[in-house]
Amino acid sequence: MSTTDDLPAPGAPEPGPAPEPRQEAPPAGHDEPPAPDGTTPADPGEEAGPGPDGDGRHEEEPGEAADSPPGDDTPAQPRARDAEDKYKAEALSVAAFNETFNNAMAFGGNAYTLNVGTAKGAELQLIRLDATEAARQHQLHHPAPQQDRMAETLHDHHLVVLVGQRGSGREGTGTFLLADRCGSDHVAVLHSAEADVLQALVAQARRFMKPGEGVLVGLGARSPGQSTLKALSLLAREIGAYVVLVVKETGTDDDLASPYSVRHQRAELRPVLEAHLRSALDAHRARCADRDRCDRAGLRRFADGVLDDARVSGKLDAARTVDWVTSFARNIAACLHGPEDALDVLLDTPHEDLRSLARRFLKLSEAQDADEPSASEAETHHQAVRISYVLGHDLPLSDVLRMGTRLSAEMLRAEYRESAPARPVFELDLDRLVAPGMGIAAEPGAHLADNPRRARLTDPELMPAVVEVIWHGFGWLRDPLVAWLRAMADDRLERVGARAAVIVGHLLRHDFDGAYRDVVKDWARSPSVRDRRYAATALSVAMAAGDPRLTAQVARQVRDWAGSPRPQLQDSAARAYGTQVGTQDVPGTLRALRDLAGRPALDPYASVAYSTATLFLAKDGAEPVAEALGQWIRSDDGHLPRHAVRTLLVLGPLAAGPELLFRSTLAHQAMGSPAREETLLLLWQRALIDPAHSGQAWHQLRDWLVAADEDPELSLFLEKFALRAWQPRVLSRRAVFHLSIWARQQPDARLVAQLLRALRGR
């Protein structure tokens, strides 16, 4: 229930004393609010005194009184409220109550609502929070950054202004501050849809502010004036009340200009979730009929298991508001006695449709916040940085800013404006453009320790979602995007170019022909090895989508490259076979690589060796690759043995496993198979004598011998293996030369000394 009274305008004089005011008993359980000076409010049907203009006229009386002839000095008679006026007043009161009631539910209050309507000014609704709910919020509240300063400001000035983003928990912090200062049973929320709510509060301060009580006021994005804040602070101090104002941060210098303003940032979400989850579980236990299933130890184990789940961390990173976290805690508690897979379903369900989130982030969503600019209003520089942040996931922020600067330049070339948008040097604020509460950037928490700091997304799948939205949602951005990707491929930092290849790979998923024609084709035919590597990476990313049609299209394209007479396209095909394109069919890929390795055009490149090594590390790929290397090293073709030796040098440093860190995977394979030992022997003999690779081969063999001192089994194997490999006279002389140098450099190398003594004793 609520009581609704029509009161005089702020500052209006009292009604004349002539007619006796008609008294109406208020409903039981409600007190009639006193007038500003403590008198009983006048009935609307009685004669009104001077209005706000001070000349005794009503708002609808621009000149003479409505019912008096010109020149008649008779005072205007009081106008009786007819049925139509009463109906309109009641309708307005019902609408105001409904809006206030909804606001009360948001704050958990329902005790008392007072609607004050004035002829001129804002309509205010006062909601007293339920004491039990306010006490519960006070108990579960987790402090926000700078909360001690907020409490100190409220204590000193009886007023504090919390400036922060929506969803940061400003209302919860304000409720905590007021309950901490005034008690949980003396907290109220003042609401108004009008813009001049603070002026109305100042004008009627003694009506709404009582000694020892606290009032929370939400202003949206309306920044309060300094004079209004000072007047409100003085009035609150005089009355003995406390006021907390909640204002949306606008990113301007005026946000924190007043001494009453404190920036409100979101509290760490994990403690918030833990507190509300354990509270919800305790509440469940209190009403659960099966107390055996709800013992305290079991509830603690359930909560601990949920909080340790990696999926919960992902949910918290994607949380846009603190309210969502508290609701999420209640949903988790509801899974306690639910179906067996209820919790997994809850944790595996996406927080939000990624495409919709991407559209809203780039300001393409139809359901935009009133305070947020549209895509056409957002500055080009800001949009470029936002796009670069998402597409630069896990890259250092310095790289993200480099990417954003280049994209901004390309976007400006495509725009037709009378003047380019301004780009102040100190305007670029990533914490505002990509705020954690937007659901895009992960919480900085643990990532602040990164050195250098990196771009972190709540969900890595946001990157392909944003790529699709940009490609299909911004028609004019396609050409600048292609130019930007080409420019990034030429960046001096290879990780920036590699990210361009990944982005192109995502574009291939949505428009294979267009992206291949505009970017990949030129990369594959480029004289630059790096560009050809980017082309292979792009095709691999496209194939990772798991689309059978796209997979077949990528495979056909790689076969076309392999069959081309251009050496660059052949090399691009060889590099593509070392990605997911080739690992899906290891035997078939080995046949294709053998064909490419037999061509003289690929002799200058190591692409075949690296791709073969990738296949060796693939699932079930070690044995087929070892078999192929045995065939290549024994081939009469002059090209195949060279690629086999290069593969040896690529695979040589790789350890056999976490428990065999000092043992090479090739040596481990040879120790269990005489056939593999013979192949390895031929590979090493060819490598140690080949002028193109002997230097690298001798250094790698030294690493094997030194590491064997930590692995007795490997040491016994290599002692016999090395002496067999050095049986040719030319290799024996070279071995003595290198062993002598290694023995002087590393006198503690036991196997090196043993081999040197054995060779000298021959």
UniProtKB/TrEMBL annotation:
Protein name, please?
Uncharacterized protein
Composition-biased stretches (Pro residues):
10-20
Q: Region Disordered: which residues?
A: 1-86
The UniProt regions of compositional bias labelled Low complexity, in chain numbering, are 37-50
